[in-house]
Amino acid sequence: MRTLTSADLSLNTATVSKQWTLAECIDGCARHGIGGISPWRDKLQDCGVDRAAKLIRDAGLGVSGLCRGGWYTSEGALTQTVLDDNKRAVDEAAAIGAACLVMVVGGLPDGSRDIDGARAIVTDGLSATLDYARTVGVKIAIEPLHPMYAADRACVNTTGQALDICDRLGNGIGVALDVYHVWWDPDLAAQIARAGKDRLLAFHVCDWLNPTRDLLTDRGMMGEGVIDIPAIRSVVEAQGFDGLVEVEIFSAEDWWTRPADEVLAAMTGALPSI
């Protein structure tokens, strides 16, 4: 397993979403020696896609991903509005040179109890987006979310389910593994091996606090919680993954309340726990 430095980290802008604009995130990464960035689309659009692309290039940062596309079930069925927004997301990812477009695929349509039907909508949506993404050289990364989000955010909840979709859709699609969502899965190591290097498109880290005060917005800095992050990273890197390690922390009562420079210093200080 490689020895990480700050240059191997990427800042997901959600980690300091309450403190900084995208331009400030880019400048902060450069000052702290962090090698990459992964913008959320709201921050990217606020900055302006072309301006953001130039700022990222000028700072010498890699782009580990763009968050996020997906939400295929948000209008109850696969609509042209949803497909058009995902096409825009692909174009944005291409413009900033993102390694992948991360997909939070969507949960159950309002009033539905049909999770298999929701997964069918998601698969059809991903297929349509992938057809376009291939034409512009953007890779699509399904992010399986913890089962607690199956109803409202993502009906794809395990790495195995995500890879089943990848198997059906072919080249250009893989997975974004966030330890917060997958650490509990007893089949995780086998599914990482199944993915292989070509389909391991992104690796996100934070920690699971015990107790957790809020299941969405109370993630911990690496080393603060119960996830054995180095063990998971070792399995991912055994398959050949050598990309940026992306730090994505939602923390309403802690890290979002601190000065952003303090948060980035804590990120680099947490390297031994990754």
Give an account of the 3D structure.
There is one protein chain. By secondary structure, this protein is of the alpha/beta class. It has a single domain, classed as Divalent-metal-dependent TIM barrel enzymes (TIM Barrel), CATH 3.20.20. Helix content is 42%, strand content 15%. The protein has helices spanning 22-32, 41-47, 49-59, 80-96, 115-136, 159-169, 179-182, 188-199, 229-238, 260-269; strands at 9-12, 36-38, 62-63, 66-70, 101-104, 140-142, 173-178, 200-205, 207-208, 219-220, 245-247. It has a nine-stranded parallel sheet with strand order 3-2-1-11-8-7-6-5-4. The protein has a two-stranded antiparallel sheet with strand order 9-10. Strand 4 (66-70), helix 4 and strand 5 form a beta-alpha-beta unit. Helix 1 runs parallel beside helix 3 (49-59) and helix 8 packs across helix 9 (229-238). The longest helix has 22 residues, at 115-136. The mean pLDDT is 98.
Low-confidence stretches: none
Counted beta strands: 11
Largest sheet, spatial ordering of strands = 3-2-1-11-8-7-6-5-4
Indicate the radius of gyration in whole angstroms.
17 Å
Helix content: 40-55%
User: Class, according to the CATH hierarchy?
Assistant: Alpha Beta
Q: Which architecture would the CATH scheme give at its second level?
A: Alpha-Beta Barrel
Cα distance spanning the termini: 11 Å
**Which descriptor suits the 3D outline?**
globular
Residue fraction in strands: 5-15%
| Average pLDDT | 98
What is the CATH superfamily classification?
Divalent-metal-dependent TIM barrel enzymes
Order of helices and strands: EHEHHEEHEHEHEHHEEEHEH
Number of domains: 1
Instruction: Outline the biggest β-sheet.
Output: 9 strands, parallel
